[in-house]
Amino acid sequence: MARATTTQKTRAPQGAKRVAQAFLDELATIAEDKQAEVAKAAQAMVRETLIARRDKAKAAKQKLRASKAAPPRGRPGARAGRKTRTATLVRKAVRQRRSASSQPGSGEAQQAAENAGET
């Protein structure tokens, strides 16, 4: 015996009852001969709004995935904030030279001391 799936009752999402009741209350204020047309138009508007929201959310999700997937290429400043290995090595070399020249016994420090003593 096959079970009919259309006879199963599914539970409506939270808030659906209030929305439906508000819709029917407002529909009751419209003349009876126009109620069917108004209800169909309202359903179409709700459907279009939901589809637009879904499409907008989908586009935002795809945009987020695209931005995470690959870094932008070809744009100036795309690597802004990222230090290259060469720049790091240059900075280290400059620091080493500065620290070596400030140590006592270095060539520049001795020359400065001799020049000060001569005058």
In short:
This protein has 119 residues and is mostly helical.
Topology of this structure?
Layout (H helix, E strand, L loop, with lengths): L15 H13 L3 H38 L15 H18 L4 H12 L1
Number of domains: 2
Fraction of residues in β-strands:
under 5%
Order of helices and strands: HHHH
Global structural class: mainly alpha
Please report the distance between the alpha carbons of the first and last residues. Answer: 116 Å
C-alpha Rg, in Å? 38 Å
Average pLDDT confidence is: 78
Major sheet description: none
The coarse silhouette is rod-shaped
Helix content: 55-70%
Give the count of helical stretches: 4
Total DSSP E strands: 0
Oligomeric grouping of the chains: single chain
Poorly predicted sequence stretches spanning 5 or more consecutive residues = none
Describe this structure in words.
This protein has 119 residues and is mostly helical. The protein folds into 2 domains: 15-69, no CATH class; 84-119. It is 68% helix and 0% strand. The protein contains 4 helices and no strands. The chain has helices spanning 16-28, 32-69, 85-102, 107-118. The N and C termini lie far apart (116 Å). The mean pLDDT is 78.
Defining key terms:
4 helices; 119 residues
